[in-house]
Design a protein that fits this description.
Blueprint lengths: L3 H19 L5 H17 L6 H15 L3 H13 L2 E6 L2 H12 L4 E4 L3 H6 L1 H7 L3 E4 L2 H9 L15 H12 L7 H17 L3 E5 L2 E3 L4 E6 L3 H5 L5 E7 L3 E2 L2 H16 L6 E5 L4 E5 L2 E4 L6 E7 L3 H6 L20 H6 L4 E2 L2 E2 H7 L6 H9 L10 H5 L6 H14 L8 H11 L27 E4 L2 H6 L1 H13 L5 E2 L9 H5 L3 H17 L4 E4 L2 H9 L9 E4 H10 L5 E12 L5 H4 L3 H8 L1 E7 L17 H4 L1 H18 L3 E4 L2 H14 L3 E4 H7 L2
Parallel strand pairs: 1-12, 2-3, 2-4, 4-7, 5-8, 7-12, 15-16, 15-17, 17-18, 19-20, 19-21, 21-22
Antiparallel strand pairs: 5-6, 6-9, 10-11, 13-14
Helix pairs in contact: 2-12, 3-12, 9-10, 15-18, 16-18, 21-31, 25-27, 29-30
Bound molecules: iron/sulfur cluster (2 copies).
One iron/sulfur cluster binds next to helix 14, helix 15, helix 17 and helix 18.
Amino acid sequence: MRLCYSHLMDEKLFRKVEHALEEPGRLESMRSAFRSVLDKQTRNAGRIPDLEERRERLREVRASCAGDAALLERAVAGLEANRFRVLRAADAAGAVRLVLEEMGDEKLLVKSKTNLAREIGLSGALAEAGIEVVDTDIGDRVLQLAGEQAVHPTGPCAHLSRYDIAAILREKLGIEVEADPSAIIEAVVADLVPHIASTRVGLTGVNAICAAEGAVLMVHNEGNLDLVSQRPGKLIMLAGIEKVYPCIEDAVSMAKLETYYATGQPVTSFMRVIGGPSKTADIEKELYYGVHGPRELTLILVDNGRSALMADEGFREALFCIGCGACLLECPVYDVVGPVYGSPGHLGGPGVCATPIPGSGRRMEAAVEAGLPLCTTCALCRERCPVRIDTPALVEELREMAVSAELLPFGEQATLVSSVRNYSNPWGQPRRGREKWAAGLRVPEAGESTTVFFAGCSYAYLVPEEARSAVRLLTAAGEAPLLLGADEACCGGPLARIGERDAFRETALRNIESLRAVGAARVVAACPGCLKALREYASISDLDLEVLHITQVLDGALAEGRLAFRAPEALTVTYHDPCHLGRGQGILDEPRRLLEAVDGLTLLEMEHSGLYSTCCGAGGGVRTAFPGLAARIAEKRVHAARETGADLLVTCCPWCEQNLGEAADGAGGPEVVGLLSLLARCL
Ligand code: SF4
Ligand code: SF4
C-alpha cells in the first residue's frame, strides 16, 4: 500500500510535466543555446586530441578523491597553513548560518557563480536576514532580477532570449535597453559596478581544492570573479567536500575538461588560483595582509548529505560530477521539460541522483519530486559526461530504494507491476494467449535444439509479426530455435527499469525455470529490453546461458554466407538505435550491416545516430507514467527521421516501434517498421 502523500507527490510532478508540455516553445532559446555548445564542442574537439585519455584520467582522479577523508584533511591543513579560515557545515542551514556569521555587520554581498549557493538556498536566506545579495554573473543577475530558476550550471539563463532579457531589465531596473546582447551586457554591468564597489565582502564557489598546495581553483569567463574575489575585507568561498584534488595539476586538468564540456571552448578566459590572502613583505620584510585584495579568506566546506553518498559505494559516483552540465545538452527529458527535471543546484538526471541521501526518507521524497521517475534510462548523458557517470544505473538503484520507501511506482506504473504479477505480461493480456503469435510456425521440439528464441511480451502480444519474422529469419539462417510458449513470462525488464527489483526477481526466476526445463544453453532475444534483462539473470541464478541479440546471430550468418537479402523494391531507410541495444549493449553495427546487406536498400543516417542516438522516449517507465512526455520526445525523433528523406524509419525494439509509430502517424510519416519484418520480407 503506497503512502498517500506519495500520490500527492505523483500529482505534483505530473502537473509540472504537463505544464511544461503545454508550452513547447518556452525552452526554444535553451535548445538553441545547447545546440551551439554541442557545435562548439565538435568544432574544437581537434584542439584536445587526447580528450578520451583525459576523460579516463579525470574519472580515475575523481574516483580516488571523492570521499577520501584523509586527502580532505591534508587539504584543510594546507589551507589553514596558508591563512584560510576553514569552516564546516553539516547541512544547508548550517552553511547559511556560517555565511551570516562571516558577514558580521555587512549588509551587501556580491556573489560570483556558485551552484552550491543555489543548493543551500543562500540568497533567499540572506535576504530574510536583511542582507542584499547581488549576483555578478550576467546570467545569474538576469535570473535574480526575473526570479527564475537556472537551466544550466554555467549558462543559467540560456532559456531566455535577448528580447526576454531586455524586457526583464526594463521592468526590474527601470532602464531602457535595446534587445541587443552588447547593450544588455553594458546595462547589467553598469548596474553592477556600484554594488561591487560599495561592499567589502565577496562570495564565490570553488571548482577545486588542491590538497598538496593548500589552495583553491576557480574558472570563469566574464571576469566578474576577479572583481568579487578582490573585495578588500573578505572573500567567502563555498565548496562541497567532494571538490578535493590531490594537487593543482589535477585540478587544472579537470578545469580544462569542465570548460570544454560546459562551453565547447578548449580553454577558459580566466583561471584563478588562490593560495592565501592578499599580502606584501615590501616594508621591512614583514608580512602585511590586505593590499589590493581581501585581507581574509574563509572557505566553508559543505557536507549537506555528501558524506552519506560517499559512504555508499553504489552512490559515490554521483559525486564525481564536475558540474559542466554536458549531461543536460541532449537529455531527451530535459530537452522537453527543462529544469522541472532536477532541483536547484542539481539539474537533470545526474542532479536527481546527487540530491538524496540513501536511507533518508525525506531526501528520497526530494529525489522523486525532482523527477526520479522521469529518466528514460537512455544513457546518452553517460556518453556525454566527461567522467562517464552512469546515471541510468544510479537512477535504477535510487528507484529501487524509492519503491522500498513506498514512494514509487509512479502513477500507471503500478498497473504495469500488478499486470506482470497477475498475468506475466505488462499489458493485462491473458496468460493462455501468450503462445498464439507462433501458431503454425515449424520449430524444433525440446531436446532437438539448445537455442531458445525469447519472444518477450511486447512482440508476443502487440507486434506478433515481428516475432514470427524473427523465427523465420533464424530458421533461414539454420538456427531454428525452441520456443517457451506459454511457459515464457515477462522478462522483467520494465520492472527492473522502474526499481521493482522484487517483482523482477519473481518473473526472472519463472523464466530461469522454463529455460532450465528445456535444456537451454543459448537464448536469443529480439527485444533489447528482454536482452538486457536476460543478461541480468546471471546475477540471480547459476544457469549458464549465452544471451544474444537476434541481430548478432543473423549478422554471424550473413558473414558466413548463410543469409542473403533482396528488397522487393528500391527502398531508402533510416535506422533508430534503441538505447538499450546500442548504447546499452554495444550492438550498433550488426543491425546496420544487416540493412546494408539488403540488395536495393539504401541506409541513411539521422543527425544523431549510433552511440549518440537520441531516445524514442518510451524507456524507463516513462511511456507508462508520462505518455505525453514520451510522445513529445518521439515527435522529435520522427522529425529527425523525416529530415533524412528516408521512406521508412526502421527500428528493432517494440517499445520504440510503438512510440515512434504513434508519433509518425500523427506527423504524416515516415512509416515505422520493425527491422525483423523488413528483413523477413527481403529473404
Ligand atoms: S539516462 Fe537519458 S533520460 Fe536519463 S538523465 Fe540521462 S540522458 Fe536524461
Ligand atoms: S554528471 Fe557529468 S556531464 Fe553532468 S554535470 Fe556532472 S560531470 Fe558534467
